[in-house]
Amino acid sequence: MSTTELHVHNPVEDLLRQDRVPTIWCPGCGIGTTVNSFAHALLGQQINLQKTAIVSGIGCSGRVSGYMNLDSFHTTHGRAIPFATGLKLANPELTVIVYSGDGDLTSIGGNHLIHAARRNMDIMVVCVNNMIYAMTGGQAAATTPGASNSTTTPYGAFEPELNMAQLVDAAGACFVARWTAFHVMQLERTMAKALKKKGFRFIEILSPCPTYYQRKNNMGDALAAMVDYKKRSKIKNGCPTWETALEPGGEIVVGEFVDREREDYLTRMRRQLGSHYSEFPPQPEEQESEGCEKEC
Amino acid sequence: MKADQRCVMTGTHFINGDAACCEGALSAGARFAAGYPITPSTEIVERFAARAPQVGGLFIQMEDELASSIAIQGMVWGGQKSFTVTSGPGYSLMMEHIGLAAISETPCVFVDVQRGGPSTGLPTLPAQGDMMQARFGSHGDYVTIAICPNSPQECYDLTVKCFNLAEKFRVPVMFMMDECVGHMTEKVVIPPAEEIDLYPRRHASKPPGEFQLFEAGEELVPEMAHAGEGYKLYVTGLTHDKRGYPALNPAAQRELVGRLFEKIRRAQDELTMVEAEGLEDADVVVVSYGITSRVAQKAIQAARDKGLKVGKLRLICVWPFPEKLIRELAGKVKALVMPELNMGQVVLELERCAGGQCKVIGVPHPGGTVHKPVEILEAIERGAR
Ligand SMILES: Cc1ncc(C[n+]2csc(CCOP(=O)(O)OP(=O)(O)O)c2C)c(N)n1
Ligand code: SF4
Ligand SMILES: [Mg+2]
To answer: Are A112 and B34 an interchain contact pair (Cβ–Cβ within 8 Å)?
Structure first.
């Protein structure tokens, strides 16, 4: 038997850019685990992968877009959401996913996160929360649990950590969930569900960074992180998001917290514009010209 | 390719430069825009917000200029033509995404209606203080094209031109208006759609699988495809190879940045866009751009009335700078005079290109109003001595 015959085809492979492997991620990093759940969720759906785009900012987590065999956009630090907004508005047929890190989405990009949720822009945002700026070498993020050590908070941070779930809930997201890299099956199911939903969807995933966060805080390796997630997490679907704060060493509330119906931006725009909106075929030169009504 | 008549407001209008710019964008086929309000540019997007839905487009007011300047790039990769509009402080916030557009070769237009600075400066008063920022504002090495109108008519005509140049060279194009031309109301003639030539998007001519997103042919400008067309695009702000994949090494950097420069350098002749008059026997040539050229006109006339031989050179395209033209001109005249509404920006480039062959006299002005013709006249007289 040749080795090729031995190779068992993993359906996820088709969703990854094989020519980009190996990834830049460290052994034990949780980002790849989340991508595996994401790829399975995508495969399980009837969505057209040709019409699916993934947008990232900058960071270790921001590299996800570049490993997916989709239309991939690796933008600037913090600005994946406004790029994705433009993409979706320009071509509403697209399924647009933003996949990025905690620092990227909530610190430098925090304002965009709030406003995309408020607008109920029809995009799905996946945030890998490793509680640190990993790509730049382990500095404190807005999500770093207060007492933790980081290269820029050698005495621990003097500020409390942000609860993203509560933030995007308050801003109007129509779907909000949190899992950890330990909850691969739940994560896949939640991602599948979110993929089918219309409007602003937000999924936070606690993910180990053994290289910086775990090491700086003597939390052991990736396996220890998994044990910790298993031990500390508590599934509370529908939990009010103000009860989901991630306190240092405390309970990790996971589950699907928010699942509500709200008219998304484009639907509302069309409805409000009514007859003021004129459909415009994408390729005018191929259409018969109908002349112009109104003043134009 | 011709403009789509449904978007073109053919006729004779009495509108200001901001409104004319908006109509120019629509004529050019831009039906999508993102922006954040700021004087004196807001009228452009206010008008666009009303006009765009009539042609199946939209304006989205983003949460800030960082968002606007990247949302438009999402729109472009989503298959549309798009632009953003701002002034001083907003332009500063957009710098990072001008760099992104440059490295990802995203064709788009940034309109900056210049006002006095630095910082919040003079919100409703004119300046031309962002000219160096238009050239060098984002970090790293890149080139852009910057165009300066001096009338509402040009705000229309040259906006169309900006979109065409953006598509042709796949660069972010800077449309450098100023408060005066933006708020000045004059006659603007919008031609019939069939008389407006549009440069079509350089769309991939090869099917997915064979197409490489950053493979540039003869002209050094690659073709592009859009999300959702099956190409599995990879677009990154990192230095990349022909596939668009990150390539973080000196060789890839040299190849990419070299090409970004070379594609514009080669087109220097085409991008030398000037209005020239009386250069043949001139002793002094007044070189100006934007609103300042209209004040300069007065000074030139006054100098001629005094018997001086004065020529006029108005730069319509300021970046890339018309290096060759200036070099030749500098060899023939006694002096080049450059008034501008800043403390001396483009004059540095003028001096460099003149290379000591003639006197170069700047007429700086911190903005807030335009020059007095006499200030320019004095400089002309000094040059003629
Ligand atoms: C404007 C800007 N500021 C700073 C940086 C440097 N930078 C790159 S990644 C990063 C942090 C990323 O953190 P996060 O989003 O949490 O991603 P992670 O690496 O942890 O996955 C920073 C600060 C940058 N690229 N751009
Ligand atoms: S530094 Fe941390 S987050 Fe980045 S790849 Fe390594 S383990 Fe993952
Ligand atoms: Mg992080």
So the answer is: no
Ligand 2, atom 1, lies closest to the CA of A134
Q: Note the pLDDT tens digit of each residue in A135-174.
A: 999 999 999 998 899 999 999 989 999 999 999 999 999 9
Tens of pLDDT along B159-179?
Answer: 999 999 999 999 999 999 999
Domain A8-288 has CATH 3.40.50.970: yes
Decide if B152 contacts B16 (C-beta within 8 A). yes
Set out the domains of chain B in order of their start, with CATH numbers.
5-195 (3.40.50.970), 218-268 (no CATH), 275-384 (3.40.50.920)
B179 class by beta-carbon count within 10 Å (0-12 exposed, 13-18 middle, 19+ buried): buried
Distance CA A272, CA B16 (A): 29
Q: What is the ipTM of this complex?
A: 0.98
Report which of B378, B286, B289 is spatially closest to residue B341, judged by C-alpha positions: B289
Select from A278, A284, A266 the least CA-distant residue to A93. A266
Q: What is the pLDDT of residue B45?
A: 97
Q: Does the distance separating the beta carbons of A112 and B78 come in below 8 Å?
A: no
Cα–Cα dist A290/A40, whole Å: 46
Nearest CA to ligand 2 atom 6: A26
What is the Cα gyration radius of chain B?
Answer: 21
For residue range B98-137, what is the model confidence (pLDDT) as tens digits?
999 999 999 999 999 999 999 999 999 999 999 999 999 9
How many angstroms separate the CA atoms of A168 and A177, rounded?
A: 10
User: Residue A90 has which token pair?
Assistant: 């320009």
Name residues whose C-beta falls within 8 Å of residue A112's C-beta, 6 or more positions apart in sequence.
A78, A79, A81, A82, B63, B67
Measured CA distances, A23 to A55, A138, A240, B174 (Å): 17, 19, 37, 37
Average pLDDT of chain B, as a whole number: 98
